[in-house]
Design a protein that fits this description.
Shape: elongated
Number of strands: 20
Number of helices: 12
Length: about 425
């Protein structure tokens, strides 16, 4: 019987007891693969040729991807409504094992545990640190690596990967093109090391590393301000969003931006130039491997604003949203022109006094990335910003979905500071520009 298996789905091939065994990922749906094996007998006189054939098969199956990745897996037992552990051990670990990956699994025990693990990890012992969780554990991993004395070396050497087992699975959607755990496992096995921009957030005297998004206004409120609606699942964000949109909620503030590209057409041209070349225009920044995080070029949020930054006084800001990635959730493509390693943040700003009809159109335009093109959406590519809220009362500022104090905060991009595993090696899986 003839069987057609894509090279991408081949996990491993080896000769044993006069048989050639081929492990592969068998598609069960668009989001799901299962482990399967085919076995063929070999004549003793053909063993040498079979070994050569198996080695050639693996070279074709892996291409530029590293074989036998050494993966440290952190499992958040509370992720995915408490199902993350079950999902990982049932759907993911067997696929890693079938690809001859070296695996060590550790279950996190409390909030912040992944920070401690990442801070202490031996970066020479592993190729990948993977989180079986939502996006929260990824945030902890990057911040833990950033605490190491050799943070620059650690962030360059140890690639971060995401096994989507939580309620928010944006990183996997962007890098793997899927929110399916088993499919993501296959993408990690076959994925390529990819430099990724990270962002330093300064607030007060503190410094936080961001890998995904920074939100002030309606998105932050809709995310962090709806904890009482968590029982609704992802719908709570939509409900919170609509309530604030229909109420014409505004967030007075002062915004300062280090603008790099200020025109939507030029932003698209920049994106397509990088994607068509299948590489980033410039290499990652030179970061001393012996030291910690790179110094802050623009200082803290309490320092003077540089003269060459654009300043905007917003009396009726509705939403300030900046992102390192395209999708902020499974179906919300806020930043379709985002790139992993171009040294820029993608920003949208929307007034809070837009019409209700416009608000509904915006909400419906997210999945296809069409929000970017709407006339009421102000889009930029920037390398740094500062937001100073005007109202002293408590509000919400969201960094990668995590709350920081409601006070002036500043962000600056570090080009290629981090490393991830991605399917393409140069872009996000948006379905555009392939």
């Amino acid at each position: 019987m003839t069987r057609s298996i894509p090279f991408f789905n081949i996990l491993w091939a080896e000769i044993s007891n006069n048989h050639i065994n081929i492990n592969y990922a068998n598609p069960r749906s668009k989001l799901d693969v299962g482990l399967a094996t085919v076995c063929y007998s070999i004549e003793r006189t053909q063993l040498s040729r079979a070994e050569t054939w198996a080695a050639s098969l693996l070279d074709l199956a892996y291409g530029e991807a590293q074989k036998k990745k050494r993966i440290k897996v952190l499992v958040n037992p509370f992720g995915g409504k408490g199902n993350a552990s079950k999902i990982y051990y049932r759907e993911v670990e067997p696929i890693f094992e079938a690809a001859n990956c070296v695996i060590e699994t550790q279950v996190t025990e409390y909030s912040g545990h992944a920070i401690e693990i990442a801070e202490k990890i031996d970066v020479d012992a592993w190729d990948v640190i993977a989180a079986a969780s939502g996006d929260g554990l990824i945030f902890e991993i990057f911040n833990g690596l950033g605490k190491k004395e050799n943070a620059g070396e650690a962030l360059a050497k140890l690639a971060v990967a995401h096994i989507p087992c939580g309620s928010g699975n944006a990183m996997s959607r962007n890098l793997n093109g899927t929110a399916g755990p088993s499919m993501a496992a296959l993408c990690i096995i076959k994925g390529l090391r990819t430099p990724i921009d990270l962002v330093s957030i300064s607030h007060g005297q503190r410094r936080t590393i961001s890998f995904l998004s920074q939100a002030f206004g309606i998105v932050a409120d809709s995310d962090l301000g709806t904890d009482n609606l968590r029982w609704m699942g992802p719908a709570r964000f939509t409900i919170g969003f609509l309530i604030r949109l229909f109420g014409n909620t505004v967030y007075p503030c002062d915004v300062a931006l280090k603008v790099e590209i200020d025109d939507k057409k030029r932003i698209k041209e920049h994106y397509h130039a990088v994607v068509q070349n299948k590489s980033n225009a410039e290499p990652r920044e030179e970061i001393p491997e012996s030291g910690g995080l790179p110094p802050l070029k623009y200082g803290l949020a309490t320092d003077p604003i540089p003269d060459d930054w654009m300043r905007i006084s917003h009396d009726k800001l509705g939403n300030f949203y900046s992102g390192n990635m395209a999708f902020m959730s499974q179906d919300a493509n806020f930043f379709p022109a985002s790139l992993p390693n171009d040294g820029f943040l993608d920003v949208i700003m929307i007034r809070g006094d837009i019409s209700r009809l416009t608000a509904v159109q915006m909400l419906g335009s997210l999945e296809d990335g069409e929000l970017f093109d709407l006339p009421d959406v102000h889009a930029l590519k920037i390398s740094a910003f500062r937001i100073t809220p005007r109202n002293p009362e408590d509000g919400y500022i969201s960094i990668d979905g995590e709350q920081i104090p409601y006070e002036p905060f500043q962000a600056e991009v570090h080009k290629g500071l981090g490393t991830v595993i991605s399917r393409s090696g140069f872009k996000y899986e948006t379905g555009k520009g392939s």
